[in-house]
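Cross-posting from the chemistry board since nobody answered there.

I work mostly on the small-molecule side, so proteins are not my area. We synthesized S-adenosylmethionine and want a rough idea of how it might sit in this target. Sequence and SMILES are below. Is it possible to get a predicted 3D structure of the two together?
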Amino acid sequence: MRVFIVVAHKFKGEINLNDLPGSGRIDVVCRCINAAIFMSHRIRKDVEFYAYFPNLGVRIRIDSSRVKYLNPDERSTAALIRNALKQGATEEEKTSSPGFYIKKSTFENLLEEVSSKYSLYYLHEEGDDIREIKIKSNPAFVLSDSLNLTEEEEEIVNRYSTARISVSPHSLLGSHAIVITHNELDRRGL
Ligand SMILES: C[S@@+](CC[C@H](N)C(=O)[O-])C[C@H]1O[C@@H](n2cnc3c(N)ncnc32)[C@H](O)[C@@H]1O
């Protein structure tokens, strides 16, 4: 399995399908989902994707092996997220559509849950070069959105993660960092 966790700081809960950037930059999350799950004419079946919304204290989990109705375009992905939010998050994880699950969570509880099953890494511009470090099987990667993680979030990530990893000498879009990460893992057969 490969896990990606994207922290969406700007999202406040409302999605206008005709204005995704104006909907708390939900377009960024949709692009990260696309990068994590889609290949050409097929989807990766071994991905778990988490969108974490700090303003709501909610996480949406996508299990790519079970997902249905997910298409590569951002609008229909945003519609599935909106549908999940309409179900309303509770302490119990609920299914909103096949492969989409919603639950209330703190950021710390999310990382505790993920790091109990996977080796957690922090994707960061100033991390160790991905080409130089050993990555364990079943890795999980935390990314931020267009904002950096807050100091408090970083402190939590540092406690649960194994290493900070950089995938490029440049600062990239989160979705592009996901594609490069997949490429490195594909080449290693991880
Ligand atoms: C658009 S960037 C965040 C904003 C950026 N730090 C800035 O100063 O504008 C989104 C996320 O992608 C990941 N990312 C971007 N470039 C990366 C790199 N070279 N290596 C690893 N992760 C990267 C990081 O998790 C980052 O928080």
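Reply from a structural biologist on the board:
Welcome over. Reading the output above for you: Strands lie at 2-7, 38-39, 42-43, 47-53, 58-63, 94-97, 100-104, 119-129, 139-144, 163-166. The chain has five helices and ten strands. Happy to explain the token format if needed.
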